[in-house]
Design goal:
Largest sheet: 7 strands, mixed
Number of helices: 22
Strand order of the largest sheet: 3-4-5-2-1-8-9
Number of strands: 13
Structural class: alpha+beta
CATH superfamily of the largest domain: cca-adding enzyme, domain 2
Shape: elongated
CATH class of the largest domain: Mainly Alpha
CATH architecture of the largest domain: Orthogonal Bundle
Length: 468
Amino acid sequence: MLDAESVDRRLAAALPAGALYAVGGRVRDEVRSALDGVPRPAKDLDYVVTGIELDDLVARLASVGRAELVGVSFAVVKCTLDGLTVDVALPRRERSTGVGHRDFAVEAGPDVSLEDDLARRDFRINMLARAVGSGALVDPYGGVADIEARRIDVLKPEAFLEDPLRLLRACQFAARFDFAITAATLEAMREAAPLVATVSPERVRDELIKLIELAPRPSAGFAIMRETGMLAYVLPELDEGAGVEQNVFHAFDVLGHGLATVDATPPGDLLLRISALLHDVGKPRTKDGPHFYRHEHVGADMVRELLLRLRFPGEIVERTERLVRQHMYQADPALSPAAIRRFINRVGIDNLELQFAVRAADIAGSGLPKRGPENEQFQERVWQTLAERPPLSVKDLAVSGADAIDALVAAGRLPRGSRGGPAVGILLRAVLEAVLDDPGLDREGQLAILHREAEAVAGQRADVSQET
């Protein structure tokens, strides 16, 4: 895969001298790296080309790679070089014609200046360009000064009205970079906050992922959402926890605890961090004095609905729901071996590390000192149990779905040649329950349970028929 410098050279060789500029987050991060000495690899490679027409740009790019015009009105070309695709565009001006990121009148081409192109971007820290070749930095709006001062500022207060997605971008940039948002920009965000409801779920999701996964302290971004009134539109379920007091085992209200819990997890693990953030989201709806009965089950249902609404991938939805539903497990090192095996079955082997990490973050996020070593002792019991390799799920049984079908046919519950039905799963689960109690149960014993349960199912069906 080509690196950024190689792409720069190949594009520059195909274009008029001095016409190619790197723009976007890459340039911002180059400035940040120069100031703090922390190297940051270039991720999204975006370019602007000045002084030529669109047809000429496409033809020149086609001479060095595959050039695909993806936005005629926006004059954007996708150029693919050795499998790496970058955006190359002509400068453009944009004028908002309504609410939404697509509601713009656009003018693009060689008559638009680079400075005009930079002015349409979201924040001053992103209104930067670097000339490919000379390396000269173009900074007409004080972007470098804002980076040096660690602040986020807009060129004009209408920026959020023109594109409400910028409301979310301000929050995630502030949290990721540990920058402060200027007072005037915060005021503009408050006024525009209701417009965040017009942003598509997919775009909201993408900004939330950047905030949750990448920020050292995601709470900083969510605190800004709360301060500006955005949180009630973006994550109303999380916002419900504000002011909901807890018992003596917590120093924070429900919202504060969720934010402290996600902050107690390391950056980079999206699934862990979403689960930590939302693990107690069901508490406000289950509060009964100092208690929150079954809040983990109510919360799991809320999490599923929330994540589906924001179009999260199915695996994230399923695993987060399970981690939230199981997060109140009893971490008692004295539990019986059968209880330990049932715990592993409920959580799932692939989720154990994450479930334990959610518990550790939950404790840290309480704001109070840790009370004892029971969680670690319980975890050690779990790992010891896994090392013994007992059967823990239906797929580990000595009997199969075919055996269950045979038992149901023998009991007259299914016709010969049947491929099965819901009763097959019921029988196999009954066998698993027995095996979790007695992992030494052999195939003959498991078959006996299948036939016993099949007879019971058939008997139940007969009873129902007589009643009707």
